[in-house]
Design brief:
single chain, 420 residues, binds 2-acetamido-2-deoxy-beta-D-glucopyranose, two-stranded antiparallel sheet, alpha/beta, Rossmann fold, disordered N terminus
């Protein structure tokens, strides 16, 4: 982070890669080095086999007339070749073990089983006019996420990329891209086929002019609460953890013009912000096959299809405001193997920090901490970033599933400091 003065002095251990997996790999490496060394020791000290030490006449050799030195040399070089092969084999094995431990495989474009369209997409394409002076590149290289190579995403990807170019995309499973994104196979490769609208009514319905479209999108409401139209949120606070949009905008004293709502469902936050002339991009996933992105678009708002683990596709320091109702929550993450590890949250927090400008606001809206321990961990993490706590409310609500238990909610408006 260069000159950025994060308060991470006492927390360096958290950033250490000292996991069980890496120590297992190190042990294996050590074992492999020891065996190859023992092998070499054996090769150089062991007595040559009888066939080599017997009379020169039994082994016709071009250098036989010069003396036994050449024979000894060839014995040694044979041993060396054997050692080299042994080392190469253990390196391959080690690589394999490392990949298995990391939990992913690599997508080899040379693999014959890869659909031709995927191979074509991944191929390097030279720029028609040669090297581009500004970017310094000579060819375009397309990429897909490494998780695409992991089972079962690999099979889904092969199905996704098996189609007839320039025709309609296969109709068999319109939710295939969603399934792949949920398995962290993002970015997905581009396809050369004509897409089919998932909900024809949503795309052909006449659009109302803006801003009427915000609350009358003219398409079916996909759900309730944050997954459908909600006219209460941020207008009529339901508890002390609910801040109103107007009070937060007042804190921002006019400097809030563009924002990013992470995991924003049906786009209610962006709609309320649009009414106040603030442009908000809403990241939303198609949950349970509901056409969330089409719904947000029908409202005249900007939907962004983004898996919970993808790096935000924005440049540094671009947003005046980042809002999230549940992105820090384990909600969308366990399916992607992110669970509630501190590091998973750190990856997210650092990316939020990156896209927020100095002086910009981070609005944590009713973040559900499963317990007090989680609340302490999140609080400690946030404090290490040195944000100014403009609002900070911790509340408890009865657990809907277990009335004997209460759940801890954290709501906060935090201001990113200017860092030198
Ligand atoms: C070949 O190596 C052996 C020891 O392995 C040695 O006794 C012998 O003198 C060597 N022969 C020549 C010709 O150098
Ligand atoms: C939004 O912008 C329009 C046009 O500039 C203006 O008439 C309106 O008063 C603004 N609304 C708010 C809430 O600032």
């Amino acid at each position: 982070m260069g000159s950025v003065s994060l308060k991470i002095g006492d927390g360096t251990a958290r950033f250490r890669r000292g996991t069980l997996c890496s120590s297992a790999v190190h042990l294996l490496m050590l074992a492999s080095v020891i065996t190859t060394n023992l092998f070499a020791l054996y090769a150089f000290t062991a007595a040559p086999p009888p066939s080599f030490s017997s009379a020169p006449s039994t082994v016709p050799h071009p250098g036989a007339g010069v003396g036994g030195g050449h024979r000894n040399l060839s014995v040694i070089s044979e041993h060396v070749a054997l050692i080299v092969r042994e080392i190469e084999a253990s390196e391959r094995r080690l690589h394999q073990i490392e990949r298995e431990l990391a939990g992913y495989d690599t997508l080899d474009p040379a693999k014959p089983s890869l659909p031709p369209e995927l191979r074509l997409f991944l191929a390097r394409h030279r720029l028609p006019l040669g090297r581009d002076a500004r970017s310094g590149i000579t060819e375009m290289v397309a990429s897909v996420a490494h998780s695409c190579a992991r089972s079962p995403a690999a099979d889904l990807l092969a199905r996704y990329m098996s189609y007839k170019p320039a025709a309609h995309c296969p109709a068999d499973d319109p939710s295939l891209p969603q399934k792949l994104i949920a398995k962290a196979c993002e970015p997905l490769p581009r396809r050369r086929c004509l897409s089919r609208p998932t909900a024809p009514a949503a795309t052909t319905a006449p659009r109302l002019p803006f801003p009427q479209s915000l609350w009358s999108p003219g398409v079916k409401n996909p759900g309730a609460g944050m997954y459908g139209l909600d006219k209460q949120m941020w207008i009529t606070p339901g508890g002390k953890n609910d801040f109103s949009i107007d009070e937060v905008l007042a804190i921002g004293s006019g400097g809030i013009r563009i924002g990013f709502d992470i995991g924003g469902g049906a786009g209610n936050f962006a709609a309320r912000m649009a009414e106040r002339n603030v442009t908000v991009v809403t990241s939303t996933l198609e949950i349970g096959g509901k056409p969330m992105n089409e719904f947000v678009a029908a409202r005249g708002l900007f939907p962004l299809l983004l898996s919970p683990t993808q790096r935000f596709p924005f440049y540094d320091s671009v947003f005046d405001l980042v809002h999230t109702l549940n992105a820090l929550d384990e909600g969308g993450a366990p399916a992607l193997g992110q669970a509630s590890r501190t590091e998973a949250l750190e990856f997210l927090m650092f990316d939020i920090d990156r896209v927020l400008r100095a002086g910009g606001l981070l609005w944590l809206d009713n973040y559900l901490c499963t317990d007090d321990e989680r609340k302490r961990m999140v609080t400690k993490l946030i404090e290490r970033f040195g944000y100014k706590k403009l609002k900070w409310v911790v509340g408890e609500k009865a657990d809907a599933r277990n009335t004997a238990k209460t759940q801890v909610y954290l709501s906060a408006v935090l201001q990113k400091p200017a860092r030198g």
